[in-house]
């Protein structure tokens, strides 16, 4: 006859300090921020984000080098235009890294494990959106900072006025204006990061297969920009400049550029921006609506996954 036995294997109740919900959210934020650049993952996961980061830096470094050699102030890339100029590289970063942030837990069906702790879908969503927006902000802000530092080092504010081939005089920007334009460009980078990251995460969350997610994200950005560019070209050809400006609101990069131009006093990078005093507020309201809507949709998506 076999008798049962009770073994003391050493389990005991946790008696330490409970870190709580805020610590969990912060940990999720840091984990996703690291994942956006492949940190803590195999080497192959780091190749694409760091390669794209290097590609983002090259034009800025080249612009500063040309400025230092030629001493022509107009050779420095305008801070606020950098994100739009480099939108292809930015779109590739969004397409390759958004599935890493939004769809891995969905693909492997581990979202319920996260919700078994004191964290709710809105917290989970905000941690992911915040982390990916931060990663994108770093990608955009570092080259802009390189331009700013390069302008200070080369003393671009002390350069003499130059006469351009068309007879226009290109004057060096005073130091105070450099600082104001740089700070305005950083605000633009924040807005670019929030809007672009939110849209990309929504698309990736509904395409759990990584390959489809990459294709879907880049298609949305590239197709929307191309279609808007075509509409703007036709509108300008028919001298309907007002339509050309409002059409830009249907492309994410042009939308944020409209806010920079109308509300931050930046030089436009898009073909046209919305005219009149309402162009900036409408563009900003659309940006806020996009981000808030994306967070709500992602929260519902993760909540549904957590119940399955």
From TrEMBL:
Transmembrane segments: 47-70, 82-102, 131-154, 179-206, 212-231, 243-263, 283-302
Sorted UniProt keywords: Membrane, Transmembrane, Transmembrane helix
Superkingdom of the organism of origin: Bacteria
Entry keyword Nuclease: no
Protein name stated in the entry: ABC transporter permease
